[in-house]
Amino acid sequence: MGRALAAAMNHDSYSDDYIRGILNTVKTIAMVGISPKDNRPSYLAFKYLLDRGYDMIPVNPGQAGGEILGQKVYAKLADIPEPVDMVDIFRASQYVPAIVEEALTLTPRPQVIWMQLTVRNNEAAAKAEAAGLKVVMNRCPKIEYGRLSSEISWMGVNSRTLTSKRAQLFGRGIQRMSLNRSTTSGGTTEATDRAQKADSGQ
Amino acid sequence: MTERIPGFSTLAIHAGAQPDPTTGARATPIYQTTSFVFDDVDHAAALFGLQTFGNIYSRIGNPTNAVLEERIAALEGGTAGLGVASGHAAQVIVMQALLQPGDEFIASRKLYGGSINQFNHAFKSFGWNVVWADPDDLSSFEKGVSAKTRAIFIESIANPGGIITDIEAVAKVAKKAGVPLIVDNTLATPYLCKPIDFGADIVVHSLTKFLGGHGNSIGGMVVDGGTFNWSREKGRYPMLSEPRPEYNGMVLHETFGNFAFAIACRVLGLRDLGPALSPFNAFLILTGVETLPLRMRRHCDNALAVAQWLAQHGKVAWVSYAGLPSDRYHALAKKYCPQGAGAVLTFGLKGGYDAGVKLVSSVKLFSHLANIGDTRSLIIHPASTTHRQLSDQQKVQAGAGPDVVRLSIGLEDKDDLIADLEQGLAA
Fold first, then answer.
1. In chain B, pLDDT over 70 holds for what percent of residues?
2. Which positions in chain B touch A115 (Cβ < 8 Å)?
3. Cα dist. B27→A176, B18, B67, B301 in Å?
4. H or E stretch covering B378
5. Residue B385: is it exposed, middle or buried by C-beta count within 10 angstroms (0-12/13-18/19+)?
6. Closest CB from B16, B52, B259 relative to A48
7. Interface pTM (ipTM) of the complex?
8. Is A38 in CB contact (< 8 Å) with chain B?
9. What integer is the mean pLDDT of A42-56?
10. Going from the N-terminus, what domains does chain A have, and what CATH number goes with each?
11. Is A8's pLDDT higher than 50?
12. pLDDT computed for residue B332 by the predictor
């Protein structure tokens, strides 16, 4: 028998609608802390999101002035000459408050602060939310895109979604799927969430 | 705002599957193809570099197999699955991802005879050394732990003896030792028992048995619980935590997070060792999984009726079935598989070896063969077949002594099964 899951914004779990809403709305994503090395998770996520049609802007002071995957690298968020919809933070949790502070000074303000897998800072999240921004912590936008588009299902990964509706092709090639897909919740993975929480000492 | 969490039967039908994106086919198509075209050169490079999700070659992944993988992962509450050619292949793939030559793993000595052979002989030739422990003496697991231990392996319901392993207690030993607990959940299936909820980190299956359920396809599955931190102890699990030369220095755990183990098994193990699951078998097994809850309910009801009947029969010395209240494993069965103790049971004949041989020859509905988990009821005399290669002592330890007969109870009418055993025992 199924059961109902309360989906309050507690940052331990996010509803699929919340994540899909974000990934379907934002267009320009600044990735803070991207590595120029092509075997690093940040580089891989950047490349994947670029391939899915997002305007990706690399931010890394050590690489400023250069290019990563053909995109000009900026030293800091304030240097970016165009509006940013989402700031994706690929830095350790203790560096998050300064990045959020900086994001909140931008005009116009970004709509979303996204912290990567293992990155979490509750105080900075509260501050961003108080300013009206949406926050996602401890998630990877590449994995979430793959999950909600069903691309990740090709790897046997539990997408935690069910649907009786056809998935939509992204329109650029065959093995790329769009986020415009209607789903309901699928199988949960509570054990991994518990283990991760215990591991990070929360 | 609330989101519904679907129940088991809904997942058994829907998880992993969706109408085909190009044709709208509702049943999962059999993608009987070796290879998949690339969109362009960049796409090919991204696929080979694990930079994007997708299909390359059916040895590494196939869309039909992927539906089965996601479905079993969802039913087990795991993060990802990997389908392989057989249950034995699943064990090879898992151990190869965890052990280097010279490393050790602890295994319950109450296992399927084929696994005992695999661990004692084939794995030793790879330098993966098994240390046996006794599921009835939990301290033996602790005593087996050494600096070389890399995993602990148990069966949830052991084959053939009907032993229920105290998963939670063994999981505590594994946690303390800093190694993952692997549970073979073949006899229980996730319908009866979900080992990850009790502390297992990895689940393996022979899909050939109850999950497929129709005795028509061999297959195996690895499920990643997403619960183990592969990077906690540096260098202990280099396939997961160290830069991989096979993939340009990528570190799989940091790249794939809580499903990194399943990815490692796929892109290092399955890719290089090669025991791929046929998409046609995956299709047949998927069809079986859709009715798993209905079948397991019936399997368990029939098995309990047969066990109760055998227990009062004059020629039967003992019955080992954890569903019987008198069974020594009944309390553990109540905890780990409250909906039923499965459909495999053993019993001892007062007439010993000869009586066992006579019974398997005399039955007319039970099929005499070396499998379990079929719609049909099956019978075997382990001492002369599945466990023949073991020493006499190992046979007894594995619950396969000379007087033992094993039954796998099918979905027929239970009165017909009892009548067949009755005439067989009278013969």
1. 100
2. none
3. 21, 8, 11, 30
4. strand B378-380
5. middle
6. B52
7. 0.94
8. yes
9. 96
10. 16-199 (3.40.50.720)
11. no
12. 97
